[in-house]
Amino acid sequence: MLKTPGNKIIAIDPYLTDYVYKLLNKEYGYGFKRMTASVFKPGEIDIDYLFSSHEHGDHLDVDAIFELLNNKRTRLYANAESKKIAVKANIPEGKITLIKKDMAISFDEFELIVTAADHGEFCNDAMGFIFDFGFAKVYYSGDTCYNLKVLKKAIELKPQVALLPINGAFGNLNAEDAAKLANRMQSKVCIPHHFWTFPLHKGENGDPIDAIKAFPEYAPDCRLVMLSPGEAFMFK
């Protein structure tokens, strides 16, 4: 979640329920059981913008989406497959804006640049987002591996803050990959996320301790900021 200078709330891929476990428990047992408690309940916090990087259940939480959009102002910005899923979950089409890679959309306080992500065979239409506030750019990569060709746009835009998934599983960055990407983007701050989401969400070099070791070596000019769920960080 991001808070704008005007106190608007941007939510990106909020996972607030145990939807994936409910969906996959017969096949994987506890493999996709969420490992941390939700910071807030769906509908408890009024958000202003809801962005979904792709249609997987831990990024498009079907059990939470109705409550998240159950007001007059909040809209969902998502790809075509996510839109289909949301409509099936009884979200009116008028509440959804279809977005695609390489799009740029201007909002009151920021510009959104939709970037490409490489989530491999898991999702061809996975996206990343750069939120340009004028004084700073914040990059949320979505689920992606370390593919410099696909991530070229994000590297060129040099976001000061990078929100990167560090788990090394299911085609995601591991700690070394994330540090190398942050260094190429010349980011000043990296906030790791998407680790310890599920028991199966851990690949090689996919733990926070691996990031603590990797960043001084591969991204010495980027500050690693490790946040607990619910903790805030202000970029100055």
Task: Explain the overall architecture.
The chain starts with a strand and ends in a 12-residue tail after the last strand. The strands form 2 sheets. It has a 7-stranded mixed sheet. It has a 5-stranded mixed sheet with strand order 1-2-3-4-5, with helices on one face. Helix 5 packs parallel to helix 6. The protein has 236 residues and is α/β, with parallel strands linked by helices. It has 6 helices and 12 strands. The longest helix is centred in the C-terminal third of the chain and has 11 residues.
List the helices and strands and how they pair.
Elements: E1 2-3, E2 9-12, H1 19-28, E3 49-51, H2 62-68, E4 75-78, H3 80-88, E5 96-98, E6 104-106, E7 111-116, E8 127-132, E9 137-140, H4 152-157, E10 161-165, H5 175-185, E11 189-193, H6 208-218, E12 223-224
Parallel strand pairs: 2-3, 3-4, 4-5, 9-10, 10-11, 11-12
Antiparallel strand pairs: 1-2, 6-7, 7-8, 8-9
